[in-house]
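Hi P.,

Sorry for the delay on this. The queue was packed all week, but I finally got your sequence through. Input first:
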Amino acid sequence: MIPMGEKQRVMILEDNAMMRSLLQTLLELESFQVVCPEFPIVDPIKTIREIRPAIILMDINLPNINGISLLQQIRSTEDLKDAKVIMSSGSDRKQESLSAGANSFLMKPYMPDDLINLVKKILNE
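Then the structure:
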């Protein structure tokens, strides 16, 4: 658990600029510190290490990166294997995401409250 007064960092891996902006605004209104790396990301594992997010919100379909493959890399990287990850997609890939090690999956489009409640729930696990 993060000490009171310290903002928890959320990393958004989403290639759609409008979606990224909406998610950033929504999460910032809930007092999260939001980091949105620009695409293309040359070395996503290095980027995650540098940012050290409390939770990662990741789209499955990213340019030059398969979100499921990236999730598997995160889970097999010793210092990142316990990272909290929520996967999302416009198609139902929940089972595939959970099997690859996601903490949860959100099908797009989703309601803002569903995202906020899920982020808070996972961060408190």
